[in-house]
Design a protein that fits this description.
The protein is mostly helical and 170 residues long. The chain is 63% helix and 9% strand. The chain is globular, with a radius of gyration of 21 Å.
């Protein structure tokens, strides 16, 4: 499926560009970007829901997302996960308990501070995660397989700038 890409032409230098026209053009460009993000987020939520169901029937997509974050981080505390995911600690604790009950994660004492429990993925958790990596999670690699590497790198720079709230650097 080919998705039309809406582009916004830059004003011709020296042209008497009306500030209101530029503002309207910017507003339309931002609205188009919001629509693209909406489509992307819908696809990602669907992929997470499908993968969660394969890992454990009835698992909530948010719990699955946290599971993948734990795997990427290597290990994390409840506080670290709450900060990373911007979620309440009680929700993290419930999800960790669910994952622990399924044998997908384990809690161990932090070697630097025994009061803190670190959460890490188990061998079974890695196995389950790998079983859903494709077709659900590796779709991005498939979609980007024909993209030039420069475009992938540029998209990464732009998304990181957007996430940090800063203007991208060239």
């Amino acid at each position: 499926m080919t998705i039309p890409i809406r582009t916004v032409a830059a004003p011709v230098e020296g042209a008497a560009a009306d500030a209101a026209d530029l503002e309207e053009t910017r507003r339309l460009a931002v609205r188009s970007l919001e629509g693209a993000f909406s489509q992307l987020f819908t696809q990602m939520r669907r992929a997470y829901a499908q993968a969660a169901e394969v890992v454990s029937p009835g698992m909530m997509p948010g719990t699955f997302k946290m599971f993948t974050v734990i795997e990427r981080m290597g290990s994390a505390s409840v506080s670290g996960l709450a900060e990373r995911l911007d979620v309440d600690k009680s929700m993290i604790s419930r999800s960790v308990s669910e994952l622990e009950g399924l044998g997908l994660v384990e809690r161990t004492a932090d070697p630097d501070d025994g009061r803190i429990r670190l959460i890490s993925i188990t061998a079974l958790g890695r196995e389950r995660l790998e079983s859903v990596r494709y077709p659900y999670l590796d779709r991005l690699g498939d979609v980007l397989s024909e993209w030039p590497l420069e475009q992938i790198d540029r998209l990464s720079v732009l998304l990181l700038a957007l996430a940090s709230g800063e203007a991208p650097r060239d």
